[in-house]
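Q: Can I see a sequence and its folded structure?
A: Here is a first one.
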Amino acid sequence: MVAMKKEITPADILPYEVYAKERKQRRAAITEMKKNRRVEVGPYATFYFENYDTMFQQIQEMLHIEKGGEEQLADELHAYNPLIPQGSELVATVMFEINDPVRRDRFLRSITWVEKHLFIDVGGEKVAGEAETDVERTKADGKTSSVHFVHFRFTPEQIAKFRDPATQVMVVIAHENYHHMAVMQPQVKEALAKDFA
């Protein structure tokens, strides 16, 4: 695992045959690592905090499944490199998961612009989420996406507070139709603190 790297390059990508051979163990290792990189907020939302390793695995999986070669690799690097923390931020894929399609559609229409209402509370100080602007996540009809990519940019002082074991950190969604928060567990804080480097 190379969580301190901040960009995936074509030189980092394993050849298809090598990845195929190592795939099972790599998937098991990343699944184990991800356990301490997720926070459930309310009944439907989960924040999956990304890093070099999670994005590397995502790209390798996409290449393994789709076999799109160089052209696909360029697209995957363009899509996933922006989600690797750059040293003073946490980056999350925020997913709203509801199995029933009718309920999901109704719910997503009720949380228009939810991406503007996400933040991390570090000992009472808000770090606002900034959504990726690659695609508009809320459509003209008001329906928002079930997946959002969000950056939380910290000041040096906020990073110091985050690293302090005594500081309570909460992940918050403060939308009028979905207002929930979750305390970040110590093992998650410890794992995410490594993203600040």
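Q: Show me another, different protein.
A: A second, unrelated one:
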Amino acid sequence: MTDNGPERSPDGQAVGLRARWAIVLSSLAIIAVAVLTVVVLNNDDEPSGTAPGPSPTVTQPGPTVTVTATPEPTSSRTPTTSPDHRTFRYQPLWPFTSESAATAWQQAYRSGGKQPWHLDPAQTALSFTNGFLGFDEIGLVVAKSVRGDEAFVSVGYRADKNPPSVAAVIHLARLGPGDDAPWEVVGTRDSSLTLTQPRYGAVAGSPLTVGGRITGVDEAIRVDVRQASTGARLGTFCCVAAGGEGQPWSAQVTFQGATDPAVVIVASTGGHYQGVEAFAVTAIRTAD
């Protein structure tokens, strides 16, 4: 009897086949891991998880520019204002009737230096009060405020040994271009005696209703109509009896002979210490 070794059943054969397939699969897995390791090592310079694409375009930044304010030029003499052109926002009253008239004075002044008082707002205010209006009892500059192209000059008088009294605060503005633009009277800043009618710069003719408010005792308000080119009175009304605390007053005045583009309306009162103790002015444009 021949011995052929142990007998194998069908179940035994299946177990053997599975064992062989396990060995084969394990070998394949080892080979795959080795290949993958080599690939990774050979491509270690590529970013993980992205496919290499075209190289991006890089824009280089330009130079940094720092913007600074241009410093103002310095000089030994700094003028209050020196614009090449000024916008005049008021109605010219006196001494010039237009910017062209002011420019003509500038040219004459540059040639011969005549009438330098046009460059001083205080002297211009006094010349307006004494020379043009004829209020020669009012000869003091009580206060002055200048800001840029505008000035407010308080003119007044001294009664007996009392402190100076303010008769009016005259508003002036520079008319024309340049450092040597002259000062122009454009009105008054009113307090105890106000002149609100007619409206400043309005177009009006004769007869003219004039009015405002007054604070005082036993006042007599006189109204004059004048023009800068002649200085003569074109019309007068005298007088309105008034008084109290902020009481309204009004009068009607007729005038004729106006040739300037605008005329000056003047209201004045006084009589306690001197003939004129307070005044106010405004301007209208003539209807013709």
